[in-house]
TrEMBL record, chains A, B:
Leader sequence segment: none
Transcription regulator PadR N-terminal domain segment(s): 12-95
Family annotation (InterPro entries): Metal_resp_DNA-bind_regulator, Tscrpt_reg_PadR_N, WH-like_DNA-bd_sf, WH_DNA-bd_sf
Record protein name field: PadR family transcriptional regulator
Biased composition, class Basic and acidic residues, residue ranges: 181-191
UniProt keyword Coiled coil present: yes
Keywords associated with the record: Coiled coil
Coiled coil region boundaries: 126-167
Residue segments, region Disordered: 181-204
Amino acid sequence: MGRRSGILEFAVLGLLRESPMHGYELRKRLNTSLGVFRAFSYGSLYPCLKTLVQRGWLIEESGGEPDDSLTAPLTGRRARIVYRLTAEGKERFEELLSQTGPDTWEDEHFGVRFAFFGQTSRDVRMRVLEGRRSRLEERLARMRASLARTRERLDDYTLELQRHGMESVEREVRWLNELIESERAGRDQQRGETPPDPSDDTAT
Amino acid sequence: MGRRSGILEFAVLGLLRESPMHGYELRKRLNTSLGVFRAFSYGSLYPCLKTLVQRGWLIEESGGEPDDSLTAPLTGRRARIVYRLTAEGKERFEELLSQTGPDTWEDEHFGVRFAFFGQTSRDVRMRVLEGRRSRLEERLARMRASLARTRERLDDYTLELQRHGMESVEREVRWLNELIESERAGRDQQRGETPPDPSDDTAT
DNA sequence: GTTAGCATGTAAGGAGTTACATGATTTT
DNA sequence: AAAATCATGTAACTCCTTACATGCTAAC
C-alpha cells in the first residue's frame, strides 16, 4: 500500500536527522541541498511521510515547540505537521546508509548518498566510495570491450557519444580516487567532526 | 493497456529503422549500441513491440527473407518474429525525433536521442543540441544561485558534491559548444550522408 | 545429461509523476 | 480583488522491473 523503500525515504530520513521539519519545507530542501539533481513532488512526499510515521520512524508534532523559528509564526496558518525522527528512524537511516544494496540502488542514487556523508562514519564512506569506483571501472571495461567489437559499424555520432561517455566516467573515477586518498590521509588529522566510535548506540 | 510512449518506443523505432530484427536481437542492441547507458528488460520490450504493431508502426514477419543472416540459421529453432518498420512507423519516429517535448523527456533521454543523430536532419540536430545546452545553462544558473545562498550552512561533502556536479555540467556545455560549432562548420562541406530533403516520404 | 544460450511471453509490483482538490495568507 | 505563496492531500496513471512460465538447441 504505502511506499516501501526508494531514494525518497532515504532522503527524508536524512534531512529530518538534521532537524525536524514540515512537509513543505522538506520538499524545498530536497530541491536545493540535494535536489540540484532531482525534484520530488508532493504527490510522492506526503504519502511517503505517512508510511514512515506508520512504521514508527517518524512522529508527527502538530504544534509542539521543536524550534522557535518553526512554531512562532504559526498564527492562523493551516496547522503545519512537523515531523521528527524517532530512535528507530535513526537506526533505519543508519542501516540504509551502510547497506550494500542490489547494485542499481547504489549506482543510481550515489549523489544522494554522498550528500549525507557528513553524517556517516569513515568506514561507510570508504565502502561507498570504493564500491562506486569499482562499478564504474567495470562499466568502463564493458564499454571498451563493446567499442572494440563494434567500432566499424557505428556512425560518427554514436562513436562521439561513447567517447564522451567514457571520458565522463574516467573523470569521475579520478575524482573518486582523490576523495578516497583524502579519506585515507585524514585518518590521523581529523577533518571537522569525526565520529570516534560507531558502537555508540544510545539515543539522544 | 499497452505502453503509451517512453524512451523504449523511441529506441525500438530507431533501431528497426536501420534494419528489421526480432525481439531478442533488439534487446542485445539496446544494451550495447545504446545500452551502455541503460538496459531494458524483456518484460518491457515484448509488450512494447505488441502495442507498436497494434498501432501499425511495425509489422511482424514470421519467416520472410528480410536478410540472409537472420533467416538462414532458422533450422528448427523457435520461430522468431522479425519486426519491420512501416511507413507510418517512420513518420512516428521522425515526429519523436523532432519533438520539442515537455522538458524532462529531452533532458533525461538526451543520450538516446543523440545516438540516432545519424538518421536526423541537421536542423533537428541543431535544435536538440541547442535545447540541451540552454537547459543545462539554466540549471547551472540555478545551482550557482542556490550555492550562493546556502554556502555557509553546507558541510564539506555537500559542497564538494555540488562543485563536482557543476564542473560536470560545465564540461558538457563545452562539449555541446564544440558539437554545435562543428555542425555549423559542416553546413558547406558535408560529413557522410546529408539527407537532402525531409519531404521525401516514399517507403522503401 | 546438465548447464548455457536462444527465444517469447505474462502478472504483479515499484517508485515515482501529473492533475486535481482545498483553503488560508501575504503581496501586488 | 486578483495573484502568488504557503500548506496538505488523493486518484489515476506511467513506464519500467522482477519473477515466473515455457520450450528448444548447442556445448561441456
